[in-house]
Write a structure and sequence with these properties.
- There is one protein chain.
- The chain has a single domain, classed as Growth Hormone, Chain: A.
- It has 18 helices and no strands.
- It starts with 25 loop residues before the first helix and ends in a 7-residue tail after the last helix.
- The chain has 434 residues and is mainly alpha-helical.
Length: 434
């Protein structure tokens, strides 16, 4: 099985010599060694710009998630409707995600990233304008959710496939963990602050904030220099290149197992967010403020899990880590099914945050280590199928929650997540030895 070869002295796309990682700066020297080690990939200037863009795009993503869920809940009063908007966002991920993987292996990844981010910025600006003008209708939310989903579908394989070109193979897990840290650090305060902003002003200002964030993301992307790599070639047949990616996955059972296992946490488990509006209002008797706080508290777990993995120099137990994390995720959802008191929700949402971060870091790093460079985009795009199926699980959970209560919705998701873990082990028992 071909493994990614670390770059030793590649040529940058701007024809300059490769920038070597910077020595530890003054701030790093003041950090405890373990904490400093956790952020070691940021010593690479190009990865630093990519990571900062991830940080800002994550703030925009969280603003959209909180604002959109609350908007649709207030327009319809239905968890099924909240989930159906996620379906509109997921449809392009099922289609364009695979195309994005092919594009990432054919074209200049930095230029692609800038085009994608410009499109996403446009979607946020339109949504802000509609809301602030007071003319937004439910169909607007569906159309713009589709547009944002198209941007996300193209963004993920391109952004992730860049990382192995910027950091050494030995730091792959660290870099992937730092991506999770970027997402969860913004979740720590971002959703709560966005919820307060919405409560004090209007939902539209959440999209004003996300639009500003993407302006800065575009700027940081212009500063990234990526080594020249052997791409698939612009003149190749895109369809045959897409098929080539699936053939490779089918011939390597370990990759197939990793994609399958992702259906638990990334598809079924992640969809629990559609139940949050109903949980906080009907079960606990609160509003948007509590929803934002719960989302932010979940980031404590995600941040803790990310720091734990990032501080490790070598993780030789990725398979067991993923299995434990996926199982833990399912058990936390089961806990929510029995959460009758508000205080119970806080440790459970932290538990979910830890499980999700550990799984994502292990899954992404393992795939990037195994995949050859010219196929990375397509292999990452296959994992988007997991994420794209999340709204389908959300629709099912939302329907059950509307009909039988929110606890039943969480129970359904828990059973589904744990069933995927069991099925993966049954199909590929050696996954624990990765």
């Amino acid at each position: 099985m071909a493994l990614v070869q670390a770059y030793t002295a590649p040529v940058l796309s701007n024809d300059k010599a490769t920038e070597q990682p910077a020595s530890r700066g003054a701030i790093s020297r003041l950090m405890p060694p373990t904490l400093s080690s956790a952020f070691r990939s940021l010593s690479n200037r190009n990865f630093r710009y990519l990571w900062f863009g991830q940080l800002l795009s994550a703030t925009a993503m969280h603003a959209d998630m909180v604002a959109r869920s609350w908007l649709v809940w207030n327009l319809t009063g239905s968890s099924t409707s909240v989930a159906s908007v996620l379906v509109a966002r997921a449809i392009p991920m099922l289609i364009l995600g695979l195309i994005g993987g092919v594009a990432a292996d054919r074209f200049d990844r930095r230029k692609l990233l800038m085009i994608i981010q410009g499109w996403t910025l446009l979607m946020h600006v339109i949504m802000a304008a509609l809301l602030l003008a007071g003319v937004v209708e439910l169909w607007h939310v569906y159309v713009l959710a589709f547009g944002l989903g198209a941007g996300m579908a193209m963004n993920q394989p391109v952004r992730t496939s860049i990382i192995p070109n910027l950091v050494d193979k030995k730091d792959m897990m660290n870099a992937m963990s730092l991506n999770s840290i970027a997402i969860n650090s913004t979740r720590l305060a971002g959703p709560a602050l966005i919820a307060l902003l919405i409560a004090a002003t209007d939902v539209g200002w959440a999209y004003v904030w996300s639009s500003g964030a993407f302006v800065v993301v575009l700027f940081t992307t212009t500063k990234i220099a990526i080594p020249n790599i052997a791409l698939s070639g612009k003149r190749g047949n895109p369809v045959s290149q897409l098929v080539e990616g699936f053939v490779y996955i089918g011939q390597h059972r370990v990759i197939l197992a990793l994609v399958l296992l992702g259906l638990g946490p990334l598809a079924i488990g992640f969809s629990h967010q559609v139940l949050l509006p109903q949980l906080v209002e009907e079960e606990f008797g609160y509003g948007i403020g509590l929803m934002g706080v719960l989302t932010s508290v979940g980031a404590i777990g995600g941040l803790s899990g990310g720091l734990f993995i990032a501080s490790r120099r070598n993780v030789s137990y990725k398979g067991r880590l993923m299995l434990i994390a996926a199982t833990s995720y399912g058990l936390a959802l089961l806990g929510f099914a029995g959460a009758n008191y508000l205080w119970m929700a806080f440790p459970l949402i932290i538990w979910i945050g830890v499980s999700q971060t550990l799984f994502r870091a292990g899954n992404s790093a393992t795939l990037m280590e195994i995949a050859p460079d010219h196929l990375r985009g397509r292999i990452i795009s296959a994992t988007l199928l997991d994420t794209a199926l999340s709204p389908a699980a959300g629709i099912a959970a939302g329907f059950v929650a509307d009909k039988y209560g929110v606890s039943s919705g969480y129970l359904l998701l828990s059973v589904g997540c744990l069933a995927v873990v069991a099925l993966t082990i049954l199909i590929y028992p050696r996954i624990k030895d990765i």
